[in-house]
Amino acid sequence: MWFRNLRLYRLPAGFKPDLTDFESRLARRPLTRCGSFDMVSRGWVYPRLEGAFVHAANRQWLLALGVEQKLLPMTVIRQTAQERAAAIAAEQGRKVGRKEMRDIAERVTEELLPKAFSQRRTTWGWLDPAHGWLAVDAGSDARADEFMEALLATLGDVALRPLQTQVSPLSAMTGWLAANDPPAGFSLDSDLELRAASASQAAIRYVHHDIGGPEIAGHLAAGKLVTRLGLTWNDKVSFVLTDKLHLKRLAFLDVLKEQAEKTAEGTDELFDADFALMAGELGQLFEDLLLALGGEQKPA
After folding, report:
1. Residue 68 and residue 122: Cα distance in Å, rounded?
2. Where are the domains of the chain?
3. Chain centroid to CA 148: how far?
4. Residue 103 and residue 111: Cα distance in Å, rounded?
5. Mapping DSSP to helix (H, G, I), strand (E, B) and coil, where does residue 240 land?
6. pLDDT tens profile 75-121
């Protein structure tokens, strides 16, 4: 259980969810199979044990949003609709108009949906009620928004907000790189993205590249800003920090995984050990990152 891409959110001040109540709320919105005419279905699934929608370990909660989606490519719908339109044109000696073409495409979709295969995917969320964190393992805005919409619909009147800091990651990362002076506990890695501050928004990306050379210094002198920067925290976790305060390509170094394996005797224990160790280390990383970015910006 190791997350790969993190979007960070803050729980409201004073929000102390009850595990039993939280579990019952998730249970009311389980994932169900797509109906014959449904393209997608979303709902909560068991993260680990059958019957438990919250996997709780060491005061950390793991959630899992399941999504079932029909595989019906638009190219298939379009091709089938065009074939039917061509048949109508040939039989009736007339051209099929736009509105009729849309109607044909809708009928084709209705006919093919019940026959379409479905695929399932899972988006994970980690809740730390004691420290007010919510982290969603999502590599795109769409996946994160999908998870948050489902969670907010489940919890009702609860205000969750993305984490915000006093110093913007854009400004901080540019300063760290320009001075070759990462914050305490962090070291600079070899992944970097720079973007022009001008209207052109011209960008250049480096992967596994020496970021301390004169080429990079020249870009900074020309006014380019750092929008992505590879970092390693305490020789334990490497990641790419973005200007939106997303943590991408998280990699937990082997020493952590070996530590989890040593404390676990079976598959179930290894899952719990992985989750507890991941949550513990990331919690400390978040605190150090907040400190490096001037602390948290409180809502007005």
Report:
1. 9
2. 6-72+115-162, 74-114, 169-292
3. 10
4. 12
5. strand
6. 888 888 888 888 888 888 888 888 988 988 888 888 787 777 788 99
